[in-house]
# Entry
Amino acid sequence: MEMVLVLFLVGLMASATLMLTEGVEDQAKYDETKRRMNVIRKAIVGDPTRTINGGPEISGFVADMGRLPLCIAELLELGDEITPATDPKTYESPCDDSITISAWAIDATVGVGYGWRGSYISVLPEGDGVLRFRDGYGNSDALGSSMPNFGWSYAIIADALGGDETRVDLNSNGFNSTDATGDISASQLVVKDDWQISSITVNFINQNANSKPDSEVKLILRIYNSETEYVDGDSVTLAQDAIPAGGQRQETFNFDGSNGVAIGTRAYALVCYEEFSDADDYEVYDGDCVSGNGETSSANIRALTIAPRQSFTVEWITP
# Structure
């Protein structure tokens, strides 16, 4: 009888130890999953809590590319190089081979850098030589380990209220991929205010002896990622003589969610706009819009650095 009792107690202790070990292991995997979610977030929008020269550090995929990554694989590597070779080099997206990604380079026309310069998450290749960034449980996609989100559920979605705001949702299946109750979610890993601003104020400075403009003009603030990649804000109309001689005037240009200004170093120009013009029918505003349509002069394009959740005022001087 005593022997049976001893064996029972030994078995009970072993079971308790096993349950405790499993609990500790599961907690460690959970914590690692949460840590990796934060790594993905920083890879996308950087870490604005860090400062450089008194300002927030601007880094990450969005700062370089001006958009959100289409899948997690874009944070690790590029797809196949596109031939014939270009300068800068171009590659297929690992998320969608119909999407072209340029390697990072300084754009000679607008004077700022643009393109992919990752990897944004550093990982070692797995046994088959492929770079993957799984959750803390080592999960794979249901369709196989070759899928570009590596077991995560990654989605870029519109604002739940029906607006045009886009955000990143991220989800891990956790310990049991068939039981959603154990999922680990970051339903707003990145929100619009983390990676875009929606307005910029222009301070018009008139150094001319006469009021400007000479006649009513419609203007657009154009924000460049590169010469060919840019967004335009809503137009603003300046009435004749709106800016007094030697004086100043401020106007705010708004950008909606479909063409918001992404964080990072960008370039800008104030251009004249005619409502029914073609895309090339723009010219830099120099106090009037009567000199004829033409290409934007690179000498008038200026740089600015966009940080999240900040108000921006830029100057536009009319000599």
